[in-house]
Amino acid sequence: MIRVPATPLEDEVGDVIEKAMRRRNFTPEEVAGRTGVPAGKLQDAIDYRPALSCDELSRIARVLGLNEVGLCALASGRYPQPRLGTLPFCVWPLRMPHGIGVANAYLVGECGAARAMLFDTGPSFEALQAVWPRAITELDAVFLTHVEAEHAGGLAEVVRRHGGPAVFVPGGATVAGGRPMGEGDTRSFGRIEVAAISTPGHSAAHNCYLVRAPAARRGAALLVSGDLLFAGSVGGAFFSPEKLQASLARVLGMIPGNTLIAPGHGPLTSAATERRYNPFIL
Ligand SMILES: [Fe+2]
Questions:
Q1: How many angstroms is it from 112 CA to the middle of ligand 1?
Q2: Hey, which end of the chain has fewer CB within 10 Å, N or C?
Q3: Please, is 69 exposed, middle or buried when counting C-beta atoms within 10 Å of its C-beta (0-12, 13-18, 19+)?
Q4: HSE-up of residue 12 (Cα within 13 Å, Cβ side)
C-alpha cells in the first residue's frame, strides 16, 4: 500500500464554490436568491472564512450542480484521503512552492533504477533541483500535461542538463522541440507505457497521462492529471468550463477505481474517491 503523505488539499470549500459559480456565471447575490443562503456568508466562504452548515451547502450544491456529499466533506475538513493500492513501478511526487501555492511534478520509473520519466517540470529548474531525489540521475523522457509557467517553467534547463531527453507535449501546445501526443498515443520505456488522454478545459492543449506496466501481473495504473482534476476539486476552467467538465467525466469513466491519481496541485488521490466525493462529479 502507498500511504498518502499529509498534503493539504489544493482547494478549500470557498474555492470550489467560486469555481462552480464562475462556471455558471452566477454572482453571490444570485446564488443567495436561489438558495436562501445570505450572500455575505457565501462571500465569507470564498474569502476563506467558511461558516456554512451542511444544509446550506446542500442547497448551494443543488443550485451549482455540485456533489453535496463531497462539498460537505470538504467543508468539514473530512474529505477522504485514501490509502492507495500498490503500483508496479515507483513514483516520486515533487512538490514545489510557486507563488502562494505549490505545484507538483512527478518522476516515474522502475524501483531501484537510476532512470525515470518526468511529468511536468515545475516552475523552475532550481525549484525542481531542490526536491529532486538523489537516486534518479537520468531521464528517459519528459511529458508535459500543459504549458504553464508553474508546470513547464524549468523545461529548457531540465532538457539541457539531462542531455536532451525527448519532450512529449499535448497536441496543439507550442513548445520548441516538443513532440505532440494526441488521444490514445502511447510511448513505452522498458516495461512502462504512457498513454495520452486529450483533456481540454483548463487549457486548450492539455493531456492527462495514463501510466501502466501492461506486463505486470499486479498493480494499479497511475493517472497524471495535471490541472484537470485535483483531490476534491478541479483546475480553473480558463479555456472552457464545458470542455473541462466533459474531459473530467470522460477520464473518470475510463479508468479503474484503484487508479492512483497524481494531480498538478494537492495530494495524491484515487479514481474511486474522486468518483464518489469530488464536488464536480455528480
Ligand atoms: Fe497549475
A1: 30
A2: N
A3: middle
A4: 13
Measured between alpha carbons, how far is 118 from 158 in angstroms, rounded to an integer? 10
Q: Is the pLDDT of residue 222 over 70?
A: yes
| 278 CA → ligand 1 middle, Å | 18
- Angstrom distances, CA of residue 80 to CA of 69, 162, 257, 276: 11, 38, 14, 10
Q: Which single residue is written with the C-alpha cell 505486470?
A: 216
- Please, which residues bridge with residue 101 across strands? 98
What does DSSP say about strands 269-270 and 260-263: parallel, antiparallel, or unpaired? antiparallel
The percentage of residues in the chain with a pLDDT greater than 70, rounded to a whole number, is: 98
CA distance 228 to 32: 28
So what's the pLDDT on residue 5? 54
Residues with Cβ within 8 Å of residue 163, at least 6 apart in sequence: 138, 139
* Ligand 1 center from residue 71 Cα (angstroms): 22
- Ligand 1 centroid to residue 227 C-alpha, Å: 5
- How much is the pLDDT for 50? 85
Q: Indicate the pTM of the whole model.
A: 0.95
Question: Distance between CA atoms of 190 and 272, rounded to whole angstroms?
Answer: 28
Mean pLDDT of 243-268: 97
pLDDT tens for each residue of 223-247: 999 999 999 999 999 999 999 999 9
Domains within the chain, CATH numbers bracketed:
13-75 (1.10.260.40), 90-277 (3.60.15.10)
CA of 140 to the centre of ligand 1 (A): 24
Q: Could you tell me whether strands 222-226 and 101-109 are parallel, antiparallel, or unpaired per DSSP bridges?
A: unpaired
